Amino acid sequence: MEWETGRVGMGDMSNTGDVSEKGGASAGDGTVIAESAWVLVLFCVGCGAGIGWLATVLAHWLVTLRWAPFKGPAKLLTSVPEPWLSVGGVVVGAGLGLVVGFVAVHESLAVRVSRSRVVLGVRDASQEFGGDEVGLVVRDGKQLVLLRADGMELAREDCRLPWPRLAGAFAEHGYRWADEDPYREEFRRWVPGTPGLPEGADALLRARAAARKKGEADADDARELRRELLRLGVVVRDEEKRQYWRMPQRP
Q1: What's the pLDDT score for residue 98?
Q2: Across the chain, where does the E strand assignment appear?
């Protein structure tokens, strides 16, 4: 997979697809790291086309067996004469890959960083933080986390971008970087009725657990509930279907 990296002016986050490898090094410039939309879509289309073709090969193989699962659908599929069967499999697979590619682009994270601010763009929205707000940038598994100096979380986003490039970009602009969360040992597993949470936090965690069970259908709801918990001073991290929480010590 390819990524677009470069220095650009701190304009609209949607312009990250036109990142140049060359640019000024002035304090007003910023570094952008984002997945190439065209490469991502073409990769998914290619994978989909390959899977579609393999499905036709598998169907031809299944009908030769005395017994096999899905043999009925395989016979129906192979009743289509060649080359139309193979062509159709490739076309259908490529179409599904195109849909997956557009979804992947929509879900992908773009990071813009300068000394004055950090912008995280995902799902046609962006979060912006002043450079003086960000005390530490953390890689937590497959997530990029921004923390304040007091340990309070500013943002947490799933990230498929190359970690060495991200670390280098943040370090270049004067931010502290950590390859693991220094507060990881402070997290406690949430179960309904957990003591020590502020009023209203348990209900929000219950609602968030229900939203996460629905998967992508309620992903935006789970993100909004995370922000509500941050307003109460509760930091949340996920491990599979489990939620863990901590409360930074306030000065």
Answers
A1: 80
A2: 3-9, 29-35, 110-113, 117-122, 125-130, 136-140, 143-147, 153-158, 177-178, 188-189, 235-239, 242-246
pLDDT at 26: 32
> In angstroms, what CA-CA distances link 223 with 105, 230, 248?
18, 11, 20
d(Cα 147, Cα 41) in Å, to the nearest integer?
Answer: 32
Q: What backbone torsions phi and psi does residue 79 show, to the nearest 5 degrees?
A: -70, -15
In this structure, the strands spanning 143-147 and 136-140 are antiparallel
- Cis bond before residue 182 (omega within 30° of 0): no
30-57 exposure pattern, b = at least 16 Cβ within 10 A, e = fewer:
bbbbbbbbeebbebbbebbbebbbebbe
Domains of the chain, CATH where assigned: 3-35+109-178 (2.30.29), 39-105 (no CATH), 184-246 (no CATH)
What is d(CA 70, CA 61) in angstroms, rounded to the nearest whole number? 12
What is this structure's pTM?
A: 0.70
Q: Helix or strand or coil: residue 9?
A: strand
